[in-house]
Design a protein that fits this description.
By secondary structure, this protein is an alpha/beta fold. The chain contains 13 helices and 11 strands.
């Protein structure tokens, strides 16, 4: 029978290839570490290390090292699962999403979840789509709320609702670009947005890595346009506020408008700002929750997904 403590000590020794450093890392004596390794060698009746300088792994040691991490990970997942089954009174859930989307979604979702499961420690990780995908892939984040598709492998997704990216166009930009055709161009945009019509206008863009930026770049590429980008920023609310001041055109999710209509009414009072639907398939998407297929799915995750589907 495998002794997990022996296995954990072996793995550290196999990583360090130095018993002194490994013992220091484990906060045990070198003699104690040697005893644990010797016990494993007796259990499996093999030699795991070549006692040379520097220390090296035997073929058996290499084989065990390749398996050790998976065995210990499976042990941890098993303990987590059994703890969930025994008692769902405590736990932790790490949720990843953009700070702007969080402001829209979380006030509707988290109070409901907290009311039902007060013992779950909720943690938020905010970032752009690329950062969140990496966190999900590496196991630093349990669930990510973002637009489909998630651009990492081994991710299972649960659709929540439809989402649309709109084009936010200040009247001031149109008046400057089309002084003699302002009403005509605005009416045309209301019927159908043609990015070629706006190719010489200034644009305000969210930084690369954000899904809205990715969709915008794909639309520009499809239209064979190199936009005149006058400013890039990480904060999508900043680009909207600057658009409202007449500095440029930007792309903005429809969900964010409906969530705080009063704010946007005030923005339009400062400078008229029109929101137009884009006649591009990529601008019409689905908001979803994603989780890693290969990681243990806790009850905390399952219940969060259930409440999200019922709430959003």
């Amino acid at each position: 029978m495998i002794n997990f403590l022996n296995l954990e000590y072996f793995l550290v020794a196999a990583e360090e290839l130095n018993f002194t450093k490994a013992a220091r890392r484990l906060f045990i004596s070198q003699q104690s570490l040697s005893n644990h390794i010797s016990n494993m060698e007796k259990e499996f009746d093999v030699v795991l290390f070549n006692r040379t300088t520097p220390l090296t792994l035997t073929y058996a040691g290499q084989a065990l090292k390749a398996r050790a991490s998976k065995i210990l990970e499976l042990k941890d997942e098993t303990y987590h699962e059994l703890a969930d089954i025994k008692d769902f009174s405590v736990g932790q859930l790490v949720i990843g999403l953009s700070h702007t989307r969080g402001r829209v979604i979380l006030p509707e979702l988290l109070p409901v979840y907290r009311d039902q499961f007060p013992g779950i420690d909720l943690k938020l990780v905010e970032g752009n789509s690329s950062e969140l995908a990496v966190g999900l892939l590496h196991g630093d984040i349990d669930l990510v709320i973002d637009l489909l598709p998630f651009k990492v492998e081994n991710i299972e997704t649960v659709p929540l609702c439809e989402e649309e990216i709109l084009l936010a166009v200040p009247d001031a930009v149109l008046e400057h670009a089309f002084p003699d055709r302002f009403d005509e161009v605005k009416a045309q945009l209301s019927r159908r947005v043609d990015l070629n019509l706006l190719k010489d206008c200034p644009f305000l863009m969210i930084n690369e890595g954000n899904r809205v930026r990715t969709i915008a770049d794909e639309m520009f590429e499809e239209s064979q346009i190199t936009p005149k980008v006058v400013l890039e920023t990480e904060n999508i609310e900043t680009v909207l506020a600057l658009a409202a001041k007449g500095m440029g055109i930007t792309f903005y999710p429809k969900m964010f408008i409906s969530s705080h209509a009063d704010i946007h009414s005030k923005l339009r009072e400062i400078a008229p700002l029109g929101f137009f639907s884009l006649d591009y398939q990529k601008a019409h998407g689905v908001l979803a929750i994603g989780y890693h297929k290969g990681h243990y799915m806790s009850r905390a995750m399952k219940e969060f997904i259930r409440i999200a589907k019922e709430t959003i």
